[in-house]
Amino acid sequence: MHLTNTLAEYGFISKLLHWLSAILLLVQIPLGFYLVDLDFGEERINVENIHVILGLTIFYIVVIRLVNKILNPTPKLDPSIFKGQVFLAKMNHILLYFTILSITISGILKKLFNGETLVIFFREIKLNDNFELADQFYNIHILSNYTIMVLIGIHLIAVIVHRLFFKDNLLKKML
Question: CA distances (Å), 59 to each of 6, 117, 141, 160, in order?
């Protein structure tokens, strides 16, 4: 297996970053919904700390993925694939990146405007309290989470459709 992408397949780095993102999102999304229902106390603080650490990790991974995407060629799709499918796949990927960044950045800003301190890119950041802005970023955070669940669903359905109806194995490129 190649470390970087080739025109025929994804490399180890792309695959690792993809599956790390997927696993962390599959943990993070339910954890966030669990967190919302917790009463304030020690358990909520512990779960929230884990949620923040995972969220920041996802943020860093997505930034690295975007740099990797710029530096690496994307494997070519089979020329028989309908151009509309290519467009839809690219749009889904763009929206996935945008939504993940929206979730992570809105979560960061919610915490910061609530008067909390976060370490981002090895720098401690603290902003003045602004609870109105914190609430707005929380609403963006929630809306973005529902959006990502739809986009992940579309992503998974596309893989299944390709396997069952088009008889190609797109998933094999990412395994």
Answer: 26, 17, 13, 28
